[in-house]
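Summary of Year 1 activities. Much of the first year was spent building the evaluation harness for sequence design. The harness presents a backbone, in tokenized form, and records the residue chosen at every position. We chose the following record to illustrate the format because it has been used consistently in internal testing since the harness was completed.
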């Protein structure tokens, strides 16, 4: 038997053709245009210093920290939480957060936030059918909308007071947060960039976020969102979770690797503002209401920090997808990027899913999503491309929702073609497309 002919192996130059926007042959763990350095790993304790030697050795709270800094602690979990769920960060900063000029209470704003999704709230109602949103409208040129003013809630479940629930928000902005930082005391923000590049400054350092990337800002961390150079408008989605935290899903029989790999989660390095003595407003979102704290110094004055309450980012194009290679349709849970547990031990509060470009290879199989009625409410967002063969109105920047047990599927000619004519050869699907999804039990609208 003769050997097969030798084909010339051509190195991949365009990483988008292999579903991956990061140059895997480079040492840089991000896309080329990302200006920042990061520390890799999920759930680790990290440490970072602007000035080497700032972190105290062998203790957390020295009598006199170096350079006249103040030690400030932040606990995210209960003090006595078991180790796997124990989260805290020590900060060594120029001025403590407690040095402020008072709480200024509620202030006028243009946001439209809802956080109580219980039946007693007359402002929310359960949507008992499918819903679809056209791309959410961007701010008018004559208005100035930053992230604080640009947040709009679509739906959710529970209430942050109960420490259980979620809110789905969208944001449309055309302005930087100017001397204004946001601190969500209700829960963790999972921010999905859809349009425009974002420059996000947090107490622990800076994150660059572009369409197809996500970041998580833990509860209690102060941050400011600005438009990256050359970008004048931005849109994205936020999933906020209460009483839970985002975790990597267990992999079961997949073993130790695959889906979102821990080393692809990137954390900022310490960064200190150049101008420290300016007036700032710290906006606390407390039980869905904005309250401002005024202070005469920057909240971004950490010279060093260590801990595991740290914002992080992840490039969804790095997702290592798994799927059926013989017959049938693997459940979409195989596309879970991050999951948040609920008090029900067998049902997550929310799963954040990826639907992106991949090979489709199953034989003797109807390969499109089959008709279904799921217990979870499904929210889909098109980040780019027009995906999943949904309606013509399912466009980037919009969204769709199917509440629990809403029957749905595809009634297009494509469905009939797939059933009768599709020849089950390997093919690439969802090329140049990216869709994210949040699945959760019992969301209201
Ligand atoms: Fe569905």
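For this record, the design step produced the sequence shown next.
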């Amino acid at each position: 038997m003769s050997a097969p002919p030798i084909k010339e192996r051509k190195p991949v130059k365009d990483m988008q053709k292999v579903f991956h926007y990061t140059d895997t042959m480079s040492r840089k763990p991000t896309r080329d245009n990302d200006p920042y350095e990061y520390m890799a790993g999920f759930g680790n304790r990290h440490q970072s210093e602007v000035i080497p030697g700032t972190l105290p050795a062998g203790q957390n709270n020295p009598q006199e920290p170096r350079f006249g800094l103040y030690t400030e602690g932040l606990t995210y979990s209960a003090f006595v939480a078991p180790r796997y769920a124990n989260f805290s960060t020590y900060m060594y900063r120029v001025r403590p957060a407690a040095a402020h000029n008072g709480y200024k209470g509620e202030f006028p704003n243009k946001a439209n936030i809802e956080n109580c999704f219980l039946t007693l709230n007359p402002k929310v109602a359960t949507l008992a059918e499918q819903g679809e949103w056209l791309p959410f409208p961007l701010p008018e040129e004559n208005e100035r909308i930053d992230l604080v003013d640009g947040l709009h809630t679509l739906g959710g479940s529970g209430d942050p007071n109960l420490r259980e629930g979620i809110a789905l928000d969208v944001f449309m902005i055309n302005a930087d947060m100017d001397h204004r930082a946001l601190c969500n005391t209700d829960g963790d923000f999972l921010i999905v960039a859809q349009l425009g590049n974002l420059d996000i400054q947090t107490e622990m350092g800076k994150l660059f976020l572009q369409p197809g990337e996500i970041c998580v800002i833990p509860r209690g961390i102060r941050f400011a969102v600005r438009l990256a150079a050359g970008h004048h408008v931005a849109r994205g989605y936020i999933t906020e979770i209460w009483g839970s935290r985002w975790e990597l899903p267990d992999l079961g029989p997949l073993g130790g690797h695959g889906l979102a790999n821990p080393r692809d989660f990137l954390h900022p390095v310490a960064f200190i503002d150049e101008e420290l003595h300016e007036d700032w407003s710290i906006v606390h979102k407390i039980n869905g209401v904005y309250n401002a704290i005024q202070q005469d110094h920057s909240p971004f004055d950490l010279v060093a920090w260590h801990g595991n309450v740290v914002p992080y980012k992840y490039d969804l194009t790095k997702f290592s997808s798994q799927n059926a290679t013989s017959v049938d349709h693997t459940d979409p849970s195989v596309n879970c990027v991050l999951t948040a547990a609920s008090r029900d031990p067998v049902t997550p509060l929310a799963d954040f899913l990826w639907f992106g470009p991949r090979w489709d290879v199953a034989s003797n199989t109807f390969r499109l999503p089959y008709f279904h009625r799921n217990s979870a409410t499904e929210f889909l967002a098109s980040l780019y491309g027009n995906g999943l063969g949904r309606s013509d109105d399912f466009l980037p920047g919009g969204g769709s929702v199917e509440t629990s047990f809403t029957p749905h599927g595809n009634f297009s000619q494509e469905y009939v073609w797939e059933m009768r004519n599709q020849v089950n050869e390997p093919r690439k699907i969802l090329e140049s497309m990216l869709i994210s999804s949040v699945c959760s039990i019992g969301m209201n609208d």
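The mean pLDDT is 92. Quantitative recovery figures across the full test set are reported in Table 2.
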